[in-house]
């Protein structure tokens, strides 16, 4: 299989100082690294980890919203939500394909997710309790995802950077549909506005956690930024997100649930309260409210879909045999 060949190519390439310096020079010159280019094992491993986690986040991320499709309040809302959830499935597929160019198979990545070995975004381990959560997820979760992914469009690895361009275009539609749900609720009855405020209260802090641990606790940031996989640090993106989102909350007439949030004129940005990092690590390590249920749903979908994969394979084999016999 070609992917095995790629891994082999790395292990044959001795990582001499000259090799590493030449690779870094390509990165510094803003050249894109392509699948068949020689690359350090660490660069390959980092990308497989990050792209794999990103793909899993898209696929697991379909679950909280998928659950609301039949309960959306109008035909228009059903159509928009259905389209959004389908887009997320598509994003997962581009990302699994991008990771496959690095020599890992989709089956391996799926097995790791099901075994609880591969991570996915912490945000999807929180429940979606009300219709307003569909607004908050689109507005805040997709809003945070875009803030991170716009930077990834300039990632040094070509297939990942190119996948991100399409993903970002679709995410901006997702963000707008979420904000529009919030706007409708905030211009509605007192109960609807309270529902929107409640969703903001529950999703604000988990959305900030999506950007990852503080820079000081981020194991991979320094090397990933040197390799231009990441272009901004976790804290820098989190601050950009807060600065962009607080005025949007004000426009909705909602209160951001952070009493310490304060504009700092000097730095031209907001100061914010402490993030509950104990909660973050608990959720990342598998002990959030929804972790077990989310992984079980993915396992069930995989098992229940086995017949589809088998049928597709049998059909392809039959066609190939027919063509060969012609
Ligand atoms: N959740 O050294 P660090 C979306 C892990 S969803 C879970 O800073 P890195 C969407 C991290 O993996 C958005 N784990 O790591 C879909 C590492 O653990 P390992 C998905 C987290 O990689 C549907 C450890 O903590 N977006 O689009 O340099 C509907 C130390 O962290 C989290 C992406 O995945 C977290 N929040 O930076 C709506 C973007 N944060 O691997 C929306 C691509 C950290 O050593 N990924 N960890 O065991 C990235 O940009 C980076 O991987 C991160 C973390 C900024 C997330």
From TrEMBL:
<dbReference type="GO" id="GO:0097266">
    <property type="term" value="F:phenylacetyl-CoA 1,2-epoxidase activity"/>
</dbReference>
<dbReference type="InterPro" id="IPR012347">
    <property type="entry name" value="Ferritin-like"/>
</dbReference>
<dbReference type="InterPro" id="IPR011881">
    <property type="entry name" value="PaaA"/>
</dbReference>
<dbReference type="GO" id="GO:0010124">
    <property type="term" value="P:phenylacetate catabolic process"/>
</dbReference>
<protein>
    <submittedName>
        <fullName>1,2-phenylacetyl-CoA epoxidase subunit A</fullName>
    </submittedName>
</protein>
<dbReference type="Pfam" id="PF05138">
    <property type="entry name" value="PaaA_PaaC"/>
</dbReference>
<dbReference type="InterPro" id="IPR009078">
    <property type="entry name" value="Ferritin-like_SF"/>
</dbReference>
<dbReference type="InterPro" id="IPR007814">
    <property type="entry name" value="PaaA_PaaC"/>
</dbReference>
<dbReference type="InterPro" id="IPR052703">
    <property type="entry name" value="Aromatic_CoA_ox/epox"/>
</dbReference>
<dbReference type="GO" id="GO:0005829">
    <property type="term" value="C:cytosol"/>
</dbReference>
């Amino acid at each position: 299989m070609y992917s095995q060949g790629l891994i082999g190519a790395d292990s044959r390439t001795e990582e001499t100082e000259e090799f590493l310096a030449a690779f870094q020079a390509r990165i510094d010159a803003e050249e894109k690294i392509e699948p068949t280019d020689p690359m350090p094992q660490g660069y390959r491993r980092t990308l497989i980890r990050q792209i794999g986690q990103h793909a899993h986040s898209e696929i697991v991320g379909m679950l909280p919203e998928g659950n609301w499709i039949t309960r959306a309040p109008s035909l228009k809302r059903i159509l928009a939500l259905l389209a959004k959830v389908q887009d997320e499935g598509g994003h997962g597929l581009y990302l699994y394909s991008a990771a496959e160019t690095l020599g890992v198979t989709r089956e391996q990545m799926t097995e790791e997710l099901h075994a609880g070995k591969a991570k996915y975004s912490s945000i999807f381990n929180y429940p979606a309790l009300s219709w307003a959560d569909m607004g908050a997820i689109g507005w805040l979760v997709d809003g945070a995802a875009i803030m991170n992914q716009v930077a990834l469009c300039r990632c040094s690895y070509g297939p990942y950077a190119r996948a991100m361009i399409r993903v970002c275009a679709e995410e901006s539609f997702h963000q707008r549909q979420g904000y529009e749900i919030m706007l409708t609720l905030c211009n509605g009855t007192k109960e609807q506005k309270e529902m929107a405020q409640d969703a903001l209260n529950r999703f604000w802090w988990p959305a900030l956690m999506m950007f990852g641990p503080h820079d000081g606790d981020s194991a991979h940031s320094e090397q990933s930024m040197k390799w231009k996989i990441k272009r901004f640090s976790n804290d820098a993106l989190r601050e950009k997100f807060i600065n962009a989102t607080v005025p949007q909350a004000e426009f909705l007439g909602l209160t951001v649930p952070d009493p310490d949030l304060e504009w700092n004129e000097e730095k031209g940005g907001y100061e914010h309260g402490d993030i509950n990092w104990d909660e973050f690590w608990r959720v990342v390590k598998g002990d959030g409210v929804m972790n077990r249920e989310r992984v079980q749903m993915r396992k069930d979908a995989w098992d229940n879909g086995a017949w589809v994969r088998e049928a597709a394979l049998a059909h392809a084999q039959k066609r190939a045999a027919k063509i060969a016999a012609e």
